[in-house]
Amino acid sequence: MFLESFIPQLPTTMLQTIIYVVAGLGAILLIYGVFLETERRQDAVFLIGAGCLLVYALSIGNLIFTIAMAGFSLAALTEFIEILLGIHKCACHDVECKCSLHKAINKRR
To answer: In the chain, where are the structural domains located?
Structure first.
């Protein structure tokens, strides 16, 4: 194969190719999630991105990476569910919060 001389670790099967694409998507989503301001969207993007990287970590068999991505996925899922149920608490004293809960509270004042 022509590219094997340049990149010796090219995926050889369709499954490996899909796993690499999913891992790349996960990395892009985690980076994109950092720049989102809406916390609900940010947690959803983090959850999907970490889930993609969890699939990759399981496929390569790296225990530390698997534990890290599983923990990150669980944390994002927990926070996303808290937001949906309305029990999430923001630390708004540090930065200006733009969540809908605090906008409603500030309108009442």
So the answer is: 13-108
Predicted TM-score (pTM) of the model is: 0.72
Residue partners of 19: CB distance under 8 A and separation at least 6: 11, 55, 56, 59
pLDDT, one tens digit per residue, over 36-48 is 888 888 999 999 9
Burial of 54 (0-12, 13-18, 19+ CB in 10 A): buried
Distances, alpha carbon 39 to alpha carbons 34, 35, 42, 49, 81, in Å: 10, 10, 5, 15, 12
User: What would the pLDDT profile of 2-35 be if each residue is shown by its tens digit?
Assistant: 556 656 576 778 898 899 999 999 999 999 999 9
